[in-house]
Amino acid sequence: MKKWFAIIAAVFLFLWLPIGAQAAEISSDTMILDWSTNKVWIDHGNLCVRGTFYNKRTDLTITKLNDITMKITFTKSDGSKSEFSGKPVKLPMLKIGAGGSKTVSLNFGPYEGTWSSWNTDEDYEFSYIPGSRW
């Protein structure tokens, strides 16, 4: 009897695994995940940016930030402009449930300069899983 129970349990477990396991998909679509920059500052000589990622979809879970490149246009007090373009030293852990958001800080490494205002433009790639079961 125990042997039959183990076989039946193994069959049900085997049948359940394909439903529970899903492959992550990769995208750079801002209609799924959007970024909004909140603050740009210098901390111990490193250029830092804080912003929020917004998951606009209610049927997807964002699981990972694969890559991000940010272009920051600085306007100085005399009206001149300078640009910085780079990738963060380390990518943050990013897991955002359906319809959720997460604020992260990015460190772009050493930077010298001053500015009176800034504007950012970013390109990023992320992984997601269809379904909001997390």
What does this structure look like?
By secondary structure, the protein is mainly beta. The protein is 14% helix and 52% strand. The protein contains one helix and seven strands, in the order H-E-E-E-E-E-E-E. The strands form two sheets. The chain has a four-stranded antiparallel beta sheet with strand order 1-7-4-5, with no helix packed on it. A hairpin with a 5-residue loop joins strand 4 (60-75) and strand 5. The radius of gyration is 21 Å and the shape is elongated. The mean pLDDT is 88.
Q: State the total count of DSSP E strands.
A: 7
Uncertain segments: none
Beta-sheet strand percentage?
over 45%
If you compute it from the alpha carbons, what radius of gyration comes out, rounded to the nearest whole angstrom?
A: 21 Å
Residue-averaged pLDDT, rounded?
Answer: 88
Strand order of the largest sheet: 1-7-4-5
